[in-house]
Amino acid sequence: MVGVSTQLGRCVLKRLVVDLNRIPSILLQTFLTVAEAGQISEAARRLHLSQPAVTGHIRRLEANLETTLFIRSANGVSLTERGAHLRERVQDVFAELEQILRELDRTREVSGTLTLAASTTVARYFVPKIFLRFHHYHPAAALHLIVGNTEAVLRDV
Description:
Elements (H helix, E strand, L loop, with lengths): L1 E6 L2 E6 L9 H13 L2 H8 L3 H15 L4 E4 L2 E4 L1 H27 L4 E8 H6 L1 H11 L3 E8 L1 H7 L1
Parallel strand pairs: 5-6
Antiparallel strand pairs: 1-2, 3-4
Helix pairs in contact: 1-2, 1-3, 2-3
């Protein structure tokens, strides 16, 4: 992040530092789940957490941000105006993060040819599943299988 300030008519750029420990991502994930579910109990079920844990996350987030994010009622919870704004921004940030991670995964893509030697029995019963799984995770890679009896395969390795 970059902030801009002026000093005696000059424009000075300064880097803003964000303390990521102030708001752990689990609090934001809990916030989004509660906002989507509209109920603490349903959010707890979706997150595989207890209701007190979810309530604690929301209270901690509200305390860290020094604002109320939800209006609580007997029917569940609804977002305050500031809560709705936070939800929109956090969803954007998480979507951007997911896109960055997808881009990083693409640059790590495996390519080339993988050659595997296997005995007849292994090639018939185990290799097809292995090849399918490998191809699922690395579609750009080619696979080459050499099949032979155990002695020949061990000799070739």
